[in-house]
């Protein structure tokens, strides 16, 4: 059964339904790069700290996502 949405286009709905975790991880990493660039341009150490925190959070989420994929593959194989 296909869901039609007035608010979300088809490509955006499919992206959010099927790939939400990886989309959020990529968003975190892109946002951290933006904060890192801004911090170097402006020279604020506070923004650099936010960028480093976002990088750590993004990499931690990525590791958790990879472990989830490995567990699902192991469950399917058994």
Question: What's the helix and strand layout?
Answer:
Blueprint: H1 10-18, H2 20-42, H3 45-77
Helix pairs in contact: 2-3
Detailed description of the structure:
There is one protein chain. By secondary structure, the protein is an all-alpha fold. It has one domain (about 20-75). Helix content is about 85%, strand content about 0%. The protein contains 3 helices and no strands. The chain has helices spanning about 10-20, 20-40, 45-75. The longest helix is centred in the C-terminal third of the chain and has 33 residues, at about 45-75. The model has no long low-confidence stretch (mean pLDDT about 85).
Short account of what is shown:
The chain has about 80 residues and is mainly alpha-helical. The protein has helices at about 10-20, 20-40, 45-75.
């Amino acid at each position: 059964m296909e869901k039609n949405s007035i608010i979300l286009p088809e490509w955006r709905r499919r992206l959010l339904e099927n790939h939400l975790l990886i989309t959020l991880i990529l968003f975190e990493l892109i946002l951290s790069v933006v904060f890192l660039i801004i911090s170097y341009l402006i020279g604020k150490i506070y923004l650099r700290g936010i960028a480093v925190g976002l990088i750590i959070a993004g990499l931690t989420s990525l590791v958790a996502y990879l472990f989830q994929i490995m567990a699902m593959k192991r469950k399917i194989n058994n």
